[in-house]
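Reopening this one. Same input as before:
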Amino acid sequence: MMNHLQKLTQGIKTISFNESRLRLIFELNLAPCVVSISKRTLKITSKREDIKLIARNATLYHIAGFNFSSIPEEGSNKSRDPEFATYLFNEGRILKTKGQLKEALDNFRRSLEIRRSIYQGNHKEIEDSLSHVGFMLRDLEKSQEVIDYLKEALKMNRCLSNDDPRYPLVYMDNIGNLLRKLGRSEEALYYFKQSLDWKKGL
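Same output, byte for byte:
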């Protein structure tokens, strides 16, 4: 049990820590309108342009140590909001670098779901979400699910005009290696041959 002096000291330390994190946000000139802070959770209220700012700068917010418990929309539906999908996607990438793989996967899945609801047919942002879900599942050693997502990403990539022709190679090699790992040698060989043919065409 803490006595009153210990509780007061702990409270002062918490306030000081939160103030230092807020100061960093303001120094970066990225602060939205702050409503309340509770430990490592920042709750904000924001206009749509502020949400766009957060989506673009998720990395810097995480540098300051914040996780966002809510980003309220202003008269919009987050389930069809491309900016919110971007925010989830970017936060997922940061969570991955922190080693929070399951949390990152959840963000990538949610981003994919929103992007599927917004865009019809093949779209680069859907492909990006598919590939990130797939590679996140690979890191979590869920091989069969990885194959399904990467096959869809590969199919979509071939229908899109891409500046970097190496993307299909990444998909093909990973699918081939995963199939080989699962003992599906003939299928693996098919993708390795495709990869080899693609390299010859570069």
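So the earlier flakiness isn't reproducible anymore. For the record, Residues 169 and 196 are 9 Å apart (CA to CA).
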